[in-house]
Amino acid sequence: MGNRYGEEMILSLNNLILIILIILSVKYDIFERRIPNKLTIPVILWGIVTAGIFSGFNGILFSISGFLVGLAVFFIPFVLGGMGAGDVKLMAAVGSLLGWKLTVYSALLTAIAGGIIVIGYTIYTGKFVGMIKNMGVHFIKWILYFIYLATHNEGVFRKYKSLNVSKAYGEKTYIPYGVAIAVGTIIVLAGNHFGYAPFK
């Protein structure tokens, strides 16, 4: 009975910590364009240690698996320059408290929210059409590149080299992905709290 009460108490505390974490992360991401380690690293350690204390080895596996999933889902976008290291560590911190299953749902919802933010921003700044055109150019260049690799046709390669994205629309734009992570995490927390599938 006491152990169950302790687990419920730590779950409630973890949810509170998670809410505080995403609120502070959104603040930093919007106003300073970064999510500092002083927010994410302590939460990661807290998640793993408390899971071990209250649930033993299974708790540690629960927390570490969530951490690794959170780290992995946004690693490729990070490598490609689509988001910062702070965003990846924030998702890993979320994972250390939610476990792998809820972290997967949170990441999917985050990706949707992030896409909406990007579309909304480009429409607001008048860059939406240009962004779509550039995406089309990138896609065609990839096709031409693989055709060249298969055929070694110099004409295909020249066409590949001649295609360029518009600099007016291709410039790097900062997107506060911490906001998208916050949206995805809050939806998962709410769904889990009210027992909605698949967030149980």
Automatic annotation (TrEMBL):
<feature type="transmembrane region" description="Helical">
    <location>
        <begin position="43"/>
        <end position="61"/>
    </location>
</feature>
<feature type="transmembrane region" description="Helical">
    <location>
        <begin position="67"/>
        <end position="90"/>
    </location>
</feature>
<dbReference type="GO" id="GO:0004190">
    <property type="term" value="F:aspartic-type endopeptidase activity"/>
</dbReference>
<feature type="transmembrane region" description="Helical">
    <location>
        <begin position="136"/>
        <end position="153"/>
    </location>
</feature>
<dbReference type="Pfam" id="PF01478">
    <property type="entry name" value="Peptidase_A24"/>
</dbReference>
<dbReference type="GO" id="GO:0005886">
    <property type="term" value="C:plasma membrane"/>
</dbReference>
<comment type="similarity">
    <text>Belongs to the peptidase A24 family.</text>
</comment>
<dbReference type="InterPro" id="IPR000045">
    <property type="entry name" value="Prepilin_IV_endopep_pep"/>
</dbReference>
<feature type="domain" description="Prepilin type IV endopeptidase peptidase">
    <location>
        <begin position="17"/>
        <end position="119"/>
    </location>
</feature>
<dbReference type="GO" id="GO:0006465">
    <property type="term" value="P:signal peptide processing"/>
</dbReference>
<feature type="transmembrane region" description="Helical">
    <location>
        <begin position="12"/>
        <end position="31"/>
    </location>
</feature>
<protein>
    <submittedName>
        <fullName>Peptidase A24</fullName>
    </submittedName>
</protein>
<keyword id="KW-1133">Transmembrane helix</keyword>
<feature type="transmembrane region" description="Helical">
    <location>
        <begin position="102"/>
        <end position="124"/>
    </location>
</feature>
<keyword id="KW-0472">Membrane</keyword>
<keyword id="KW-0812">Transmembrane</keyword>
<feature type="transmembrane region" description="Helical">
    <location>
        <begin position="174"/>
        <end position="194"/>
    </location>
</feature>
<dbReference type="InterPro" id="IPR050882">
    <property type="entry name" value="Prepilin_peptidase/N-MTase"/>
</dbReference>
